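Look over this record before class:
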Amino acid sequence: MNFIKKNLFSFLSWFVTFLLVGGILYVAYTNKDAFAKTGTPIVVEATLTPISGSSVTSPQPADNISAEKETSDAIRRQIALKTHIPEDRPNYEIKKYTVVRGDSTFSISTEFDIEPETLLWANYDTLEDSPDSLRVGQELNIPPVDGIYYKWEEGDTIESVSDKFDANADDILNFSGNNIDLTNPTFKTGDMVMVPGGSREFIQWVIPVEASGSSGTSNVSGSSCPPGAVGTGYFVWPAANHYLSGNDFWSGHLGIDIAANEGAAIYASDSGVVTMAQGGYNYGYGNVIAIDHGNGFATLYAHLSQINVSTCQSVYVGQMIGLAGNTGNSFGAHLHFEIRHNGGFENPWRWLP
């Protein structure tokens, strides 16, 4: 008993010490994940220095390591196993796209954020400047920017090509996708070169529309048909659907493709005289009807499966004139609809209600 009394303070000190150590270990164990996430790892490279006269090496003293650490110019960074590539990183490569059912040059160009003209210019060998030449399974070039995708010819220079396509020579040189050596800025014959911002004229496949009487819708001095019904200058939709199923109006497509199933009724958009009701290929228009409205306007209805009117017949607004189809250079049934005024092409969206 005397022994316990003499060493009671020691026993209590050890007991308290064990409690403190146990508590610390318990807290550390239960919070190990939090420490692992928030703790900043410090990696120090130790240089082993050989001891004179011995092959055994030993680490540098701790004070030297600390000094080296303090004077280091290294920048620490967190290691990431996955590289994050920005979605808006510029693209400089020509992509390939395979046409599927339901595509049009307009929808494809919209998907890749380029102008439809650029798409046609980059695929002349396939489409020959005609958006109606699109077919399922065709492989198209998709340029990364608007302009001309050009095959370099013998005798070409950067200046002559830029002049030819009304572009800037520096834009050709500085476009990364052209992979040009700026110390020797030349291309070889046959190289495919992107001409950013370049443009050229289209080969337009347009069917001529004759006038009736002296309406002035063409420069024909004589009258192909005698005068008849005259339009009001106000147009109605020529099909039941009032939306597109293909190309919109743009410089390479001078009309709109209105959604219409095979055999759907097609109506005269305004009153007038039929100046063309012709079957066949007709420059790619297929079975086609043209109406002169006697007031400077003419309308054209293409790719029909059936023609229900005849040349020189008077028709009236809303009258059924034929059935929608897929004839000529067409990619699926629809109605190709044009409005012309004094021989020029009008955007139908300006006139349709």
